[in-house]
Design brief:
Phenylalanyl-tRNA Synthetase, Chain B, domain 1; Phenylalanyl-tRNA Synthetase, Chain B, domain 3; 6 domains; seven-stranded antiparallel sheet; 19 helices; 40 strands; about 30% strand; elongated
Length: about 800
Amino acid sequence: MKFSEAWLREWVNPEITRDALIHQITMAGLEVDEVIPVAGKFTKVIVGEVVECGPHPNADKLQVTKINVGYDQLIDIVCGAKNCRLGLKVAVAVVGAVLPGDFEIKEAELRGQPSSGMLCSESELGMSENSDGILELPQAAPVGTCVHKLLHLDDIIIDVDLTANRADCLGIAGLAREVGVLNSVSVTEPTWENAAVTLSEQVALNVQAPDACPRYLGRVIRGINQQAKTPLWMVEKLRRCGVRSVDAVVDITQYVLLEFGHPMHAFDLDKLEGGIEVRLAQVDEKLTLLDGKKVNLNSDTLVIADSQKALAIAGIFGGLDSGVSKGTTNIFLESAFFAPLAIAGRARSYGLHTDASHRYERGVDPVLQTKAMERATQLLVSICGGEVGPITEAYSDQHIPTQATITLRRSKLDRLIGISIDSDRVTTILTQLGCDVNLTTEGWDIIAPSYRFDMEIEEDLIEEVARVYGYDNIPNVAPLASLIMASHNEARLKLSKVRDVLVGREYQEAITYSFVDPDKQLKLHPEADALILPNPISKDMSAMRVSLWTGLLESVSKNQKRQQNRVRLFETGLRFTKDENAENGIRQEEMLSAVIVGDLNDEHWDIATRPVDFFDLKADLQALLDLCADASSFEFKAEQHSALHPGQSAGIYRDGKNIGYIGTLHPSLSKPFALNGSVIVFEIELAHISTRKLPSAGDISKYPANHRDLAFVVDEQLNAGNILKFIEEIGGTQLVGINLFDVYQGQGVEKGKKSLAIGLILQDTTRTLEEQEIADNVTKIVEAVSNKFNASLRD
């Protein structure tokens, strides 16, 4: 929200400096993002009047003027602006003036004509980017007056970053209330005399969705002059709030929006057919918006319509066919309260974000409609003329938001703030905030003001008291607490240890959003029934993730687009799945996911590199699983997954329970995610690797270890892990080590077969093994493997 300091001080003017005001607003929770001068630095720019204006004899696009600036003689100035005309009051930079950018005005001659100054545009004075013509000053501006003083250009623009709960401050009135409360200064609202009603004409109202629109006001105004020029004072106030002047009618509705925080809309009365209806959009109903964009309306969208067609998306954007244009003479003025839930998310669904939707989504004061209507009418009649009809109102009392009644306990106030604030001071603060306050024996009973949608519970009031009292005024006292040594569970595997292992293997930790693109997620997990957000940040962030892969793959794509071809990322976070038996029907599980793509090593003169493969990621995962010190409980089984290559994927099991998957991303998914190269991923449930087997100490055998190597020829589809696990089971106590050290296919091995070279270590802790014992053990293993897996020893 941008606003002018000068406009704010018209409402409330505490005796504090500009810097103090900015600091005060920030400390009150309305963070000041930026402070901007309303104009550049310039000197010797004064009000002049065009006394003569004629074509330049030697240039078609220039004019020769004589300007009265209050000197003894008129000054000659050559000007190229199309809007320069006789009698116009202008901003004149006389000889010796210095404009923004240290541009000095000197005597000059343009195409043979003398020019002793310059007629300035807004951009030349650093007021805006508008360079379309010279600045037109009010006709009442005295000749020779300093333009800087005339337009109050010592003002500043304050840009405040408001949180979503402070919709009451999306207007000068709300900001003035805040500053008034912070300084215990009264607020002076502008006063006006309501326009006289001279017409009896009314437009019938039919509100078919009173829950979405509990209050709707309308008024007919006939005979306006749409060509009337918006006064400079209004144009300047709009500009200083970041709003561009369009035409008088639009400017006035925008002015009321900025003044009171209440959106309004004007329809061309002559384009309406029948009465006004407030209803939900019909099936396949279409609307062309004011910006020319054509939209297909959703059935949950509230619209303003006449008897034949939709006219506008309620509280969001007007329609082109019913909008005010240069030829408009009669208007229907709208002032309404739309329920926040009826507007929230609708603008984003059409790719829109407007000042109106921004306010209605957060909540507009439901009692402000009449005041806004009268203010807009008064301004319209004073600027554009016209005859005014009575206000027509549709009102649903049962759907209007009720003001919250809250009990504030003294005990809780003191406990949460940490100090005891005098009861009279608390009462004063709450009263100044607009609350109806009743002091009780235990605290206060409060009725929140209609414009404070964020006051709902006791904690809200405590926050308000602390905020207005001043966080700076609350002493910094450390709370007393006892120190208790926490118990340490050695079997618990800390997440930090998991992170350390992955970081040590050159991974970088990523943090991605929990809400993802539903279309991309569906490609990875077509069977998943994801939770869809009713009010998403954007369409491509509208589903809760069922896996961390979606976010990680998008991160890989972004890195590759920035020429980072070797990517190794991991992430820990929650996945969300529907479960009727879980709390609120949602099961949340903490997952660990990782992804690698690109070369195995960074390019180096001494190291030959290659693209990563399935086994590189499996090795990294195995290093993690080794933290559990229970290797025998883990198993990899060849399994298919919708997101993975059917021949390069495996399920991860612990004690027979599936805890995740690992594999190469399915080639068909590379294009949707804009990925290059072979992408390898894994994901496991953290809960299943959060415990580790505690190590137990034992004597190191002083007797020699015996190494034997066996090469089994088996079917190429056979999982080597199954053989290793089987050998461990039958090997007995003397088998102390086993290792797969080679896999071979080729000459000497039958097609469709593969050779698995397995190293065995046999040792006893009490004696030296005899050669015959070793041979017997090896023979037992060979025979068992041969029978179990139809294997044979390689020659």
